[in-house]
């Protein structure tokens, strides 16, 4: 029996399936693909479109406790129970969450990494962090030198998170091509242009058409290195298409792996209001290397608030935390204490707390977080030395290629 497909309209014969971008435009709604996020995202409707399930209260209980889950920033998933069972039983289980190194990392980029760190600490999850420098070279108007520069800076931020090197592997597509490329080729055999178009919309180059096979490789790597095990992929919703493609091609190639799951997250709102936090340079954002003064300055001048136009009106009618970006930053991640967060919301709604005061609270929490992150970043030695314990060993590379059934051409 053929495995059920995760890709609606993704079969080879349906060459005329509308691309997600076209569908969204036709329905005058929103677009969410790895290469385009547009419009006001309806996160619930997205689950229907993608075929993922909302997390239940019971599932959230069984995960390690974290505000990103408790407050449902990560709000949906695929195959979550298998992962939770393995974690509870002390069986091998893995997390894959990567980074596209097209620029400096900002606050939104580290949320899944810190979540992965919590999982690793509490249940011993193996964590893989792939960097898709190939993808960003293809998708962005940048030279390899420039992408390489961002890759090295991003690696410092990833190392500063503080993963356990015994249970963590960091791979860079171009630097670890010896293992990634043969596996990606095997997976690409089942990735047709029609599927790519149905899932991602039209791609500018054949490079980007191939890339989904590379990200599928990332998602299978923990199992190819260390054997079949539940794998979860905590990512913002725009990356789910890669998970669906991986699930589909892995089944078709009958590799000795389980389909990877997914833990889907909402976007941290941009400072200027709802929507994806921009890394394109035109909208202001908070980078992981920003000093406290520039964080304060950025929040004070750019953060969208839910406050009233005048002081008198604010005192009288109160503010709206649900649209207030400084409050949302506290809620997403930076104020882990639920009671304190509730009190801040109540004071804001009643008008006791002013927008300016709420901004200062957010500035304090964000700069505290950044001070710790930056201290660990500053303590790192040379990148080569620091990265070494996180790289795949020769044995791990060999085992992954063997399990994937792709011995290199020079081997007898
Ligand atoms: N494509 C992702 C991005 O653009 C980065 C990435 C590469 C990734 N491999 C991954 C994310 C695996 C999650 C899992 O941001």
UniProtKB/TrEMBL annotation:
Catalytic EC class: ligase
CDD domains noted in UniProt: TrpRS_core
Annotated GO biological process: tryptophanyl-tRNA aminoacylation
An MF annotation (GO) of this entry: tryptophan-tRNA ligase activity
SUPFAM superfamilies named among the record's database cross-references: Nucleotidylyl transferase
UniProt record similarity statement: Belongs to the class-I aminoacyl-tRNA synthetase family.
Alphabetized Pfam families for the sequence: tRNA-synt_1b
Keywords from the named record: Aminoacyl-tRNA synthetase, ATP-binding, Cytoplasm, Ligase, Nucleotide-binding, Protein biosynthesis
Organism: Haloterrigena turkmenica (strain ATCC 51198 / DSM 5511 / JCM 9101 / NCIMB 13204 / VKM B-1734 / 4k) (Halococcus turkmenicus)
Regions of compositional bias (Low complexity) in chain numbering: 17-29
Record's GO cellular component terms: cytoplasm
Substrates-to-products reaction catalysed: tRNA(Trp) + L-tryptophan + ATP = L-tryptophyl-tRNA(Trp) + AMP + diphosphate + H(+)
Name recorded for this polypeptide: Tryptophan--tRNA ligase
EC number: 6.1.1.2
Region (Disordered): 1-29, 274-294
